[in-house]
Amino acid sequence: MEHIYRTVTADKLTLSDIGANVTMCGWVENIRDHGGVSFIDLRDFYGVVQVVMRETSLLEGISREDCISVSGPIEARDEETYNPKIPTGTIELNCKSVKILGKVTEKLPFEIITSKETREDIRLKYRFLDMRNRKVKDNIIFRSKVISFLRSQMEEMGFLEVQTPILCASSPEGARDYIVPSRRYKGKFYALPQAPQQYKQLLMVGGIDKYFQIAPCFRDEDARADRSPGEFYQLDFEMAFATQEDVFAVGEKVLYETFKKFAPEAKVTSLPFPIISYKQAMLEYGTDKPDLRNPLKIIDLSEFFSRCTFKPFIGATVRAIKVSAEMSKGFHEKLLEFALSIGMGGLGYLEVGEDLTFKGPIDKFIPEKLKGELITLADLKSGDTIFFIADSAQKAPILAGQIRQELGKRLNLIEENAYRFCFVNDFPMYETDEETGKICFTHNPFSMPQGGLKAFEGDPLDILAYQYDIVCNGVELSSGAVRNHDLDIMVKAFAVAGYTEEELENKFGALYTAFKFGAPPHAGMAPGIDRMLMLLKNEENIREVIAFPMSSSGQDLMCGAPCEVTETQLREVHIKIR
User: Fold this and answer.
1) What DSSP designation does 311 have?
2) 553-574, pLDDT tens digit by residue?
3) Which residues are within 8 A (CB) of 36 and not within 5 positions of it... i.e. 6 or more apart?
4) Residues of 371-407 as b/e, b for ≥16 C-beta within 10 angstroms?
5) How many helices (H) and strands (E) does the chain have?
6) Which of 26, 179, 300, 428 has the most CB atoms at less than 10 Å from its CB?
7) Whole-prediction pTM value?
């Protein structure tokens, strides 16, 4: 049966179709009226085809972005009019009839071809038009291909795809929940899942050996360049009878294969990915999300400067970064400006001369007998510059990390066209809440403490968890953990964070009960798909890889969410607006 709208799409047309009568549908991308003859660039989902209209009446009533159907024979273009920029650049459709299927009745809010340069709020309000831009559409197609590949990899490794609930119980840990009022149960609420955390653990107790899903997650958090407000997707997986190393093997294989396939020209960290402890990451990189494209490392010189005479460094945590690179005139002043902008009191440095003598503002505070020791500690050579960052034990590592990244950028040290992965593990289980002074969970409360029950015999702040992240180019792609599957350890772990066993049972009743019925050891992680795509497409903003993203202020500008609802709707779910 012949299709009533079209017989061919742009991707199927070749020179072999010359002479064939076809019908095509699409949108009018461009119109060129040359008097006796007119040309239309017709865009469909698959490409662009030039349509020639030799009868002037055919163009009447047609404007850009109209949705039209055209019919006629395919002809060869004159060689001097070839368009090498498109696959159909050697042929054209000689239009004999045209039909308008969808008319543009308002002025276009922006030019489709340059929509990515339009203000974001306008783009998102008219996202259905923005999608017609080839680059925007290609990101949506790319996303589909990556997710399909991820799914096939997980299935090949024996993982079973299971969908977990979207309406669930509110969790007191982590980010803010989106809550959903119940009509049937007055005064009670569902929540949208921040992650399928409890459900995937319950699947393990239920005997599902290897689970995965492309999981939607909902968190009421503000947007950032690398975080979409409201919702995001992750490749969530969990394995029974698995160790941290088992999870690493799956996570790194999936990510390595995905980045090699979809960024074939780029350099990707070879397997196995390096493993860096949280403590080492904070010391050497000043962050738990190290960008390994930057070759600079941070060293600790706190003890060394306790023996010098520079008062601001005595008793402080002192970090240093050695740089082997030429610096332009004024470099130090500009770097000092940056240091002041991030809250530092100043930025000391020393330049190393040909005879390994020092030149710089703090040279006179280092005793001569200690200068050789500094050269050894920092592995200094002629032409090097060493920068010093001094502050409290909490602030100095973070400030040093920011200076490290700024040095990498300003001196063009960041490796180009590369994806550098690592695991960061051995995170602290607990930290002190800055506001209350009480001990709280650092990350996931369901993580297994290293050492089990014995871990609680010492200072809780010294306890490490079997908890880990995957980091790529300074972006956290995934977090995960070996889960706590032992009820006694779970009760103890939550007690340290101030929960009674009764509260634990009330808030996490399903896990509390399930762990009484033979729970297997299990572990997992969840690489973020949106961030993965952002890296692969080299986009600055995560919203560029989502079909219908919310704005940076957390609004759906196209459909008008969040919106007011009727008094009847509110009454049905027992809500009154205060």
Assistant:
1) G
2) 999 999 999 999 999 999 999 9
3) 54, 56
4) beebbebbebeeebbbbbbbbeeeebbbbbbbbbbbb
5) 15, 25
6) 26
7) 0.93
